[in-house]
Structures are given as C-alpha cells and as structure tokens.
Amino acid sequence: MLAEPAAEEGALSDESLGEQDVAGSGGGSARGRVLGSTPLRMVIGIAAVAVGVLLFLAPMHVRTVALVTGVGFVLVGVATALIPLAAERVRVPLSARVLGGVLGVLGAAMVVWPSAGTPGLAFLIGTALIVHGVLALWQVVRAGGADQRVTAALAAIASITVGVVAFAWPVLTIVLFRFGVAAWFIFFGLQLLFTALVRRRHRHRWIRTIAAASALTIAVLLAYGSVRLLSGVPLPEPGPFYTAPDNVPREPGRLLRSEPLDQGVPDGARGWRILYTTTHPDGTPAISSGTILAPEDPSDTPFPLLTVAHGTTGIAPKCAPSLSPTPFDDGAGTALQEMVTQHGWVAVTSDYIGLGTQGTHPYLVGEAEARNVLDASRAARQFDEISTTTDTVVWGHSQGGQAALWTGQIAGSYAPEFHIKGVAAFAPAADLFGLAESDKSEVGGKTISAYIANTWNDLYPLLQLTDHLTPGSKHGVEKIRNLCFNGKDALSAILRGSQIPNQVFPDQLLDGEFGTLLKGQTPVGPFPAPVLVAQGLADPLVKPELQQNWVDARCESGEPIDYRTFPGLSHMSLVAADSPLTPQIVQWTLDRWTGATPTPTCDAG
Question: How is the beta sheet containing 255-260 ordered, strand by strand?
C-alpha cells in the first residue's frame, strides 16, 4: 500500500547513466549516488521486513505495538526522504523528502508517546497512511510514464483508504491494523531489497502494478465491510399500527388494537400484535405494543397464561420484538413455543415503551418494565380471540430476567387481579450496579452502558449523563443508540461498543447519584411465588459471582430461591434450544401450575 514515488521529468535511466555522468550536490556522479544508496536500501529494507515480521508474530501490549510501529514509520520516512525508491532514479524529489519527513515525525511521535493507548495509536497510524497517500498522489501528477502513474496512484489510494478505515476502528487498531501495517512494512522492505538487487526495473513493473491493484482492492473491501458492519442492517420501522389512536384511555392495560402476525409464528400456533395502554416510569399514561402467541386450536376453557419479559433488543422503536421476523425467539424461545404448542398455554410479551411505540424506552428500569409487562397481560384478557386465566407464571431472560423479578415484586400492588404462581429469571440483570462495575471495560458492558446512557439521559435529565461520559465515548454512544441488539444488527452494536476506547461512565459518576439509581434497580422482594434463577457459569456479561451474591442475599432475607447453574453455558447458550435449561424450565412451569412442592436451594451446600 506504499505508493512508489514516480520518476520525475529529467530522471535518468540505467541506459542513460551508462553514457553520461550527472553531477550531484557535494560532488560525485549520479551513478555514484545511486550505487552508494544500494547498501542503505538493503539495510532499511531488511529492517522494515524485520519490523513487519515482529508485528505479525510477537505477542505485544499496546505500548509495545506503538513503539515497534513508530520505529517502522521512522525507517519508511528515512528511506523515502534520503534514497530514491527505484534503483535507476538519480535524485529524490522534493515531494518525497517532504513525505519522508512527515512519516518520520509521526513515527517518532509513536515512539515517544506509546502511552496514548489504542485511539491515539489509531490516530497516528491513520494520519501517517493518509498523509503518505496524499503526498504520493501529488507525486503521481509529476510522474513520467503512464504505467508508473497507474501503479503509484493505485497504491496511494489504497494507503488513504486504509488510513480512513483506521479512524473508524480506533480500538481494533491493535488487533486488525497491527497486521495490516505489518504487511505494509514487509511490502515496503521487500520493495527496497528488490530495487537494490534488480537493476532493470521496467521488466518487473507489471508485478508492482498487480500488487498495487491488489492492495487497493483489499483496502476498498475493508472500507466497504467496515461501513456495512458499523451501520447495521436495515430494519422495518414501525408503521401505522404503532401510532396512538386519537382517544386513548388513561386506564393502564386497555387493549387498543390488534392484528394477526404473518411471520415467525410456529406451527400449531396463532400470533398477534397488540397495542395497549400502560404507564411511563413517572406514572403518566403511555402506550406500548406487544405480542400474543396462542395454540392453534381454540378452547372452551381459559388458557393458562405465561407472562413473558423479553431481553435486550435495543432502545430504538424499530427494535421491538413484534417487528422482528422471529418475534418469539427471544430468550427461552424453544421452551416458550413448547409451552404454547404442546401444553396449551398462551404467551403474552410486552415490547416495552419506546420499542415499536414512541417515547423513551425505560431500559433496565425495573418497575417501569414490570408495569409494561403486567399491562400486556391485562390487555390480553380483553382480546376476543382467546380467553386466559388470571393465574400466571412469569418468565424473563437478561433484561427480561430483571423485569420478571420486578413483575413478581410489584404485581400485588400494581395488578392485584393476577395471581403469580411462579417467577423464572434466566441470567437476570439483578445487580445492575454490580454489572456496571464489573463490565465497564468490556465490549458487552460498553454496549449496554451506551443504551443506559441514551435512555436514562432522558428519563433522569438532572443527571445529564451524556455530558459526563468518559473522553472519547460520546460518539460511540450516539451511534449505538440507533442500533438494535437482536438479529444481524446485534453484531453492529457490539462492534460499535468495541470501538468505545474507555468505560462509558467515569468512576465518579458511578459513585454518585447515578450509582444510587443503579442500585435501586435491584429486585429484592418479597416475591409472591417460588422463584427460579438460572445462570450459565461461562456468562461473560452477567457474571456468575454477582448472581451468586444476589441469590445469597435473597436467601438470607428469607426468599426461597431455586438457583440452578449450568457449567460451560454463556449468556445466550443458556437459553438456546439445546440447553439443558429448556426441558427444566418447561417442567418447572408445569409444576407451578399443578401446585407441586417448590425446590429452593438456599440450604444446599
């Protein structure tokens, strides 16, 4: 990707040098200067190759990568400024000397400033590559032969392209661009060695042209892939169904409209979207959407009711599960479908406010989510197509696990018409403050923190969260706001989170009022029914030790928790179709309905 300085007008070829001497500054012929540069070419070429190989193979921390990369750019700068890149070149053009000086300065900055961290290193690498490409393009304008112009232009554009991509992936510079820059150093070093050993370059120009074209192709593909990955995938925006009618009842839990679902409904079931009234976190009237999944065959008696709180899908309206092509796959989706199609239950899921409907999604605000969940079940009881019981079992995974626990906790006061027979929480975000502390420097934690920053900034404006983020975090936080956390879009959200250089919330923010609010989202009970908590012991997001601490605290307070752990299972594999939890949660739910004796584990071990 290093653009080859094109021959300036007046440069002499090997043939012309064979016929005449051209005086140079300080005495000596042009031939003498060219031949004299051969040892320097070889020394710098070997050194550049060594730097590239070292970057490829040696394990390094950020500072070491910065030091080695800086040394490499200094070598490239020296070579570019002091010796002609082509063996038949008589002199180094002014543009190359300028380019070499700039590259040398940037390389030196990396050497003396290795503690800048990955964003600083990305900035320096990106700047060096862009400066190199721009100045190399300037040389192209003054080039001699057309073939030289093509080769140099292709390589220069490739250098600029990779430099721009470096700015898009500041944190991944160490992982990704370390190897890209390593290849760049090796290519440059081999080119110096090649020109030192092979005198008649025109015989091999086609090889360099192909190499430059290949470098540009790779750079363009890298840039295209970066745009696609970081932009997410197009998702359907909410249509007229999600718009509030003119006259909205103030009473929460009123069904406003419904429509059949035409995709993602399992065989043996029927599905609908619903729109209903609920309440904002401050208690004011609001509207939410959701789904109902019922057995295909009608029943003369009310169906048992399964109340479901879904996990994190994002915070934008387009992230609503009811808009997804697979609306019933969230969390323990296989177990849910089995409950409906094989055991004759009706499952009701709230999208929560702000997903589908307008408004700020109360992300990880436990009581607000629980109201949305309970009001969805209220709305389902008004649906003419089915009839459900007021007895219900509540499920939830991750964010939904926290919401399920809160649903059990407030049901008696908020929706006393329902009788909660059991609460099952899978990898619940029960200790939100603990998760914010333990996950603050990890990719998943940064993504979740970005969702919290965007929503809580609106829900708790006095905190002014987005004005108090760590340096360098704000751009990534803003980008993540419109990325969902379900389907293919989840990868984009995670990758954006990976490019936030530091923890999103500074420690002083966690130690203040914001931290107090996070602690207030911990469900502590009392719970009106048996509680099952399932946790994968290989969960990188909801840490098992935090979950154990929460369970121990609930047991000490007299809450009989049935705590089940699953070695080797992560946050998502815990609720996968082949998870050992799947048959267990089905049986546990059926046992709650029949009144079987609970199996708490507080006294075990």
Answer: 255-260, 269-279, 285-295, 346-350, 303-309, 388-397, 419-426, 531-536, 561-566
